Amino acid sequence: MRVPSKAEFEKMAQLRYQLRRFLRFSEEATRKSGVTPLQYQLMLQIKGFPGRDWATVVELAERLQAKHNGVVALVSRCEAAGLVSRSASHSDLRLVEVRLTPLGESCLAQLAQLHRAELASLQGYLGRRGLDQRPQIAEHGG
């Protein structure tokens, strides 16, 4: 196992610093908008789910890296706030489909604008093409 060089440690530290700055920005922006960071993450995962405009609770638990019962509680809080709705799946009644409501769509759109601008400031740390290129975090000690 090769020990990273000083320059590599500096890159890892800088990446972690920039990621933490972005996460702190996100936490503050969401709270100012009247939602919690987890509510924002849930809405983002629903809207950003590949190929559909909804996601199941099981899928959301995976995307959020959270326990199923915690995601059920989060969905319940978001539903009570009018941000999401849930319904039984037409294809499999055992599954629950979670969708954004118009209020959730509006809230997410506003927050996405703020986050997009902040992400642009990280472009140099994410690669030359910014959001179009996945950062190689694992290479930098993730």
List keywords for this structure.
single chain; Arc Repressor Mutant, subunit A; 142 residues; 6 helices; 3-stranded antiparallel β-sheet; mainly alpha; disordered C terminus; 9% strand
Instruction: Output the strand order for the largest sheet.
Output: 1-3-2
Question: What is the alpha-carbon Rg in Å?
Answer: 18 Å
Share of helix among residues? 55-70%
Uncertain stretches of 5 or more adjacent residues: 129-142
Average pLDDT, all residues: 88
The CATH class assignment is Mainly Alpha
**What's the architecture in CATH terms?**
Orthogonal Bundle
What structural class is derived from the secondary structure elements? mainly alpha
CATH superfamily assignment? Winged helix-like DNA-binding domain superfamily/Winged helix DNA-binding domain
Under CATH, the topology can be stated as: Arc Repressor Mutant, subunit A
Distance linking N and C termini = 17 Å
The biggest sheet amounts to: 3 strands, antiparallel
- Beta-sheet strand percentage? 5-15%
Give the beta-strand count: 3
Principal-axes shape call: globular
Summed up, the domain count is 1
Give the number of helices. Answer: 6
Order of helices and strands: HHEHHEEHH
Q: What does this molecule look like?
A:
- The protein has six helices and three strands; from the N terminus they run H-H-E-H-H-E-E-H-H.
- It is mainly α and 142 residues long.
- It has a single domain (8-124), classed as Winged helix-like DNA-binding domain superfamily/Winged helix DNA-binding domain (Arc Repressor Mutant, subunit A).
- Strands 1-3-2 form a three-stranded antiparallel sheet.
- Strand 2 and strand 3 (96-100) form a beta hairpin.
- The model is unreliable at 129-142 (pLDDT under 50).
